């Protein structure tokens, strides 16, 4: 994720999927904020300067071989 705005902190990335998925490993560079059916939210309480990037991730599991990402959103508290 790259911050194209001003400095931010306390951000949450929510990723949507076509079917149920769960976190089975990690996450890294964030904490699991929630995992509910088709959505996983990763949160970070660190600061991210304008123009800076961070890699967030997790290992997930599902029973659906045709899993697709359906969306991604970021909520940020400006700092």
Automatic annotation (TrEMBL):
<protein>
    <recommendedName>
        <fullName>CBM2 domain-containing protein</fullName>
    </recommendedName>
</protein>
<dbReference type="InterPro" id="IPR012291">
    <property type="entry name" value="CBM2_carb-bd_dom_sf"/>
</dbReference>
<dbReference type="InterPro" id="IPR008965">
    <property type="entry name" value="CBM2/CBM3_carb-bd_dom_sf"/>
</dbReference>
<feature type="domain" description="CBM2">
    <location>
        <begin position="2"/>
        <end position="74"/>
    </location>
</feature>
<dbReference type="InterPro" id="IPR001919">
    <property type="entry name" value="CBD2"/>
</dbReference>
<dbReference type="Pfam" id="PF00553">
    <property type="entry name" value="CBM_2"/>
</dbReference>
